[in-house]
Amino acid sequence: MKTPLIVSALIVASTAPVHAEWANTEWALNERKSSYECVPCTAANREYLDTYTILLEEMAALIAPELNEISQWMSSMSYRQAKLPATPGPFYVMSPRDRSDEAQEVLAGRLASYKSHDGIQLSYSSFITPLWAGGNYDRDIMIDNSTTLAHEIYHGVQTAMVPGEEEEQPTWFSESTPEAVGRAWAELKYGELVFNTSDYSQPLHQPANIYNRDHFFYRLGEMLKSDPAVAYLGDLDANSGRDGHDGLQWLDTFLKSNNELQIKEAEGALATVYPRFIAAYAQDDAFFGSSDGKKSLSTHVEPGIAMADDADEKPRQIEAVAATYAKMEGLFTGTWSGMDDQDRIYVNIVSVDQAERSDETRLIVGSTLVPQGERYITPVYAEAGEPNKPLHVRVTNVAKTPYESAPQHVRLKLETAQISIPLPACMAKGREFDMTILSPLTGPELQGVLGSGLSGLRVSAGKLSADLGTYTAPDKAQDVYFSLTLPTIDGTTKEVRLNPVEVSDSCMPPLAGNMVASFTGDLRDFWHSFGLTSNGSTHWKAVLNIQTGIPKAHQFEKGVLIYPDDGSTFQLRGSSEFVSCNRTDPNTCDHSTSETYRGSGPIVVGRGDLEIVSDGEKVWLKASLPVSTHMINRGPFAYTETIPTRWNIDCISADPWWHFAGDQHALFIHGGRTTQFPGAWTDPSREEIEFHCNEAWGGDVTDTGKYSASMHIQGRVKVKPR
């Protein structure tokens, strides 16, 4: 290893050379050194050498000009002149001595070496045996040999920059950088760029084969906008990579000094560049050959199921300064041809569900480097079949100080979820409608999917707010169409039109509103008799689009009006997941239950599905909605069941609204009573009522288990003056 003093001296002396400074551009074969001293040598070996040695002249006619061209090419870049014998000049010899061709075949398919006192040594097996009778090579052999020649000359460049390096043990960078130079030369001369097999599930600095990071160093040059791609290696190698950390600190320091990469100091250099590199240049499983990260994840969604997910049963390990790979597919099964297009809007959601050190990981899907801590979301039009292009997912693991990186475990998750966009059947001209889009996405995520681009939500008339929160109808009577364009599983696109909204003066009902009810619970209980701990979460959201007719007096209650149905609809989506784990070993989970809820369609106002009553100052709402619950159990109690049921949407009464029953199974009960919504008259001329209901509750399931949940119902009801 060089001392810092030597490094500084080399940097000062390492000015960009010009062609004239390269004296070693006239190569010749040293035939004297190329003779075998085959002691002891079998008759078969002597016969082999006698047969092929006569081809030295024909080989030299090909190799010497090639070496000259390579040297001239290297002299045009910021490479120090290769350190080679001064007398009789740059030369190459055939094969390390006392080594039979058979031995060379065992040791390497392409054997060559560089020594500052003996020039470049080539092997019979690669440079003599493949010669045609006419003194030519097959094209593949020419490209392979050309790569070898440039590789070995660059070793001479390294030795000139780093005295004594040839005595050092070869490392991943001292062999992979010359290999990258060889690949670049072969590309320039023959128009073909072929790399060694790269496996980035192995640590960047500790590959199984130290030649196999040629792909990394070549593509890194492209990221640095180096021209040629390997020209930057003169500056990189001048500072030496033997830093006591397998070259990681050396590489990180070099990257920090490069303005082209626009690295923020707080992020770390290699920690920033490596995920970018994997996103751009290692996009499929060909770059993760020996990784157990080839485990795939796939969802299976049937018509009527709002969401399905799949996650790693056991977290996968990512090595230090490495990446893991997974192929993910959202699969639609069953018959979708009878489904309305607006019910076939789905998204695939990829996330790092768990990580030991999440700040050191980066999620990558395809060529997209997902912002730290966020999920990858892509829309898709639901139709049966296998996706033409699955999602190529990678997660990298690099610490800000790269040599402090350590292996860690991550859990990947794929969700395929429906997006529902409930719209009123008709609206008054100029009326503003509060949009409520049902999905498991956050507001920013939803805007990212539907806000712009190919899948951006469009309207034929009127105005949709940028945050997708409101829609204002046009002032002219017409049918308005909401539409978006979705990618399909076969790689094409599909334009989806939602049911039209009629804009007309006759569409103003006496009572109209939009009620949103959402529930998120984080539930825990302990099953003492089995020594198990259970945890899970549940989420659901319901939207009631209320369009009512002329109110009628309630026959039993004085002063109370009933609003009959006039095209009201509802949408309900949700999911719930419970996992049971061994109490003494929380990592051992032997049972899980996942449920998805789905319901949509017309509702009957005042006759059982939805009851809306008003005394002119206050409004009461109570909904009981038909919902399909699809339940999947995994583990010792495995079964799948779809249960038709009814959900009550209300503010919650003071009574407990759920409980656990039985020895093993959790019974989830949704309940509630008709609740009075306190309202405020915000617009006396239109008698517009806004109502809100917020509740949070929690408690002990047993003496040790805790649960907590909350509910929020909000809405706006417009009552036309009677």
How big is the Rg? 36 Å
- Taking pLDDT < 50 over at least 5 consecutive residues as the criterion, the unreliable ranges are 1-20, 103-110, 525-530, 651-687, 700-707
How would you sum up the major sheet?
Answer: 13 strands, antiparallel
Annotation, overall tally of beta strands: 36
The proportion of residues in beta strands is 25-35%
Label the structural class: alpha+beta
Give the helix proportion (percent range). 10-25%
Give the overall form: elongated
SS element count, helices: 12
Distance between the termini: 93 Å
Average pLDDT for all residues: 77
Summarize the structure.
This protein is of the alpha+beta class.
Report on the architecture of this protein.
With 722 residues, this protein is an alpha+beta fold. Helix content is 19%, strand content 33%. It has twelve helices and 36 strands. The strands form seven sheets. Strands 24, 25, 26, 27, 28, 29, 30, 31, 32, 33, 34, 35 and 36 form a 13-stranded antiparallel β-sheet that branches. A hairpin with a 5-residue loop joins strand 35 (688-700) and strand 36 (706-719). It is elongated.
